[in-house]
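thought: fold this chain, then report.
action: predict
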Amino acid sequence: MTFLTIFPDFEDYHIYKDVGQVNILTSRLLGVKPHILSYNKTLNESFGMVGYNFIKINEIFKRVPHIKLDFNILIFLILNAKKYKYLNLYHPTFATQIYAILYKKINSQGKVYIKLDLDLEYEKNNIEKLNVGVKSWIKRKVFTFYKDISDVVSVESKEAYELLLKNETYNNIQLIKIPNGVSSKNLSQEFGSVNYFQKENIILTVARIGTEQKNNELMLLALEKCNLKDWNYLFVGPIEDKFNENIRVFFERNPHLVGTVRFLGPKNRSEIAELYKKSKAFVLSSNYEGFPLVYAEASFYGCHIITTAVSGSADITNNGNLGDIIPIGNYVSFYKAIQKVVDNDLSYVHFEEIRKHAIDNFTWEQILPCLTKRLKNG
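observation:
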């Protein structure tokens, strides 16, 4: 028996994200073989030896963006659906719904698991169901059919879970809350343990710097008002070309922050783990999110989290008790939260609580047995 994840854009780094971890760890718990279907033809050379089995999508038709219906994937399912006991798909797109329906039509005994990776703000404001016209009618009909055949559907945050049940988007037999997480075992084995005395006066952001989603402009506005004292603020991640001008202007206006606020660019997993260990606080200023993996990573390493009120913010901070939740776009509140961390060293107060909250709620070892139980019994 096998567990197939369809993720056309799978790249090396997805191994350590939810796509790769859910695939291989759930497969182990189910006692089946893990398979991932993607367009990347080199993955088996790098990761085949650690248990992953990658299948290259045969490019008969021109490749399309992952949110669009891909006829290459349809052909694969027509020819191979019966080989797979479990089918795992991502995001609530029309294409995902069609793949699930086709799989179930061919393999009625198989199980479909959809991981929504839901943008909560989009879901709150989604009025597509109110639209009229043939296209919307078709989408509604397809969704109704897809909803009926889906075995397990997971969403990442408590707020999103409650919203989908309230709106009757899914029922409570199908829907389950599965946040993104980290492997406590793997991180400890690869990068060692963490304790508070390893930490320095560092505030960290790990993201794609300068994207509209991450709204790092907000952080620059907040930092202009902060008195960082002997603290450093580190931005880690690839920097969008257009954002370099924002950085130049920021330092031109704040020359006293040169060397204190630093943009380190992309780092590998080992380097990022070391930065988490050293950092006392982690900041995310996003306009929207599903449930960012960096939440679980930062919390696992005991960082006090300052975040905008995006999906999962209440879960990761225990409703603001182990971190700060800021209204989206409010740089004054962000400045005050950062200053509070600098002035009071809040991570010292909550370090052990933050770690326990992360290990109990946001590690795959705790999360995935619940998913496995649903897949076996659903």
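thought: worth noting. The chain has a mean pLDDT of 93.
final: tokens above.
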